[in-house]
Amino acid sequence: MLTTLLAQDESLRLKDLASYNILDSTPEHEFDQLAELMTIISGCPIAAISFIGQDRQWFKASIGLPYQEIPRKLAFCAHTILDNNLMIVEDTTEDPRFENNPLVAGHLHLRFYAGTPIISSAGHNIGAICVFHQQPTTLTANQQRALTIIASQVTNLLELRIAHHIHNERITKRIELEKKTIQHTLQQQEKERKAIGTELHESLAQNLTACIIQLSLAQVRKEEGLPYIQTAKAELQKAISDIRRLSKSVNPLSLNAVGFSYLLREAMQDFSASSLIPISLHFTGDENQLQNEQATTLLRITTQYLQALENSRDTQKISITLSIQNEVCLQISHFNTEPVKSPASDILLNTIINRAEAAKGKAEVRSDGMQIRLPLKHLNTADNSDVTTTHATPSTASLSTC
User: Fold this and answer.
1) CB neighbour list of residue 41: distance below 8 Å, 6 or more residues apart
2) Considering the domain boundaries, does residue 173 fall inside one?
3) Is residue 227 located within the same domain as residue 270?
4) Taking 50 as the threshold, does the pLDDT of residue 380 lie above it?
């Protein structure tokens, strides 16, 4: 009675086999070529590259076999995978393991078998390559060695399949992330346009209308005109304030009177006030070396990264280091009990990377922080001394310091 033979590490072997996702896969030319090479080298008319599942032997590539798979209990290769050596049966009718096997006693009349295990990178025998003949045969030492080499090449093909699959998955995820980033950017732009339109209509236009009304009243009631003029003045001042706020939202550095470091600290204060997360800044160098475009990029990157951190309740504290020396180096470090990871944060981080690359810089994002390096387009001879320091910056092991 035929029985199914099991390896000592059978459960681990089956898990390892499943990780390659090879069973029931479509034909692949590289495997077919190796099967053809096996027939040429061995002189046998039948060859196969097979994998041993829980209850079947499945043929990834074969020549001269009429089956796609056979029950494991009938498989010669089920014996082969029990050790790491080449197994040769010169005459199956004289081997008690196979003399009553239907593949021997049936219409195929298999009389010769040689097989060597396919050993995974984890060391499990997940399958075997084999050759058959319908008459007793022997193999030379070189032929035996060649079959062993082919088995190792099958393992290499399996590893390449995994690497290729992982690479394609990464590309697919990257493309999908870029699509979502573009969609997010367009949505944000549309949101900003609506906000600007609302601000212009509901705030500025109403303020100016109120101002006109007050001035008209002052013109009519000349003796009582002073209060109306004062009210109109207040409305104009409010309109100016709204225009400045609106301008800063569109272009943070549109006002020459407002410095980069001031805006950076203002963004940090707004973040701390809304998130209740303590944040510190260590700033060295001369901010006058920054072009407006670079400063705007740094501000937007900082606010977007803080927005990503704000979505995580696990953030304990944040430290920002900004150095403007031979290059611009912005480093944001944070302590989290759990890594910041969500679809929304992925989109924000990808936007940051795109911003840095658009500015000819480099971005490095990790679970405990982010570092942006931008080239300085124009350098001056100003002394790069310490401009402002607030609180000590905690050291980070994962990111090199600026």
Assistant:
1) 143, 146, 147, 150
2) no
3) no
4) no
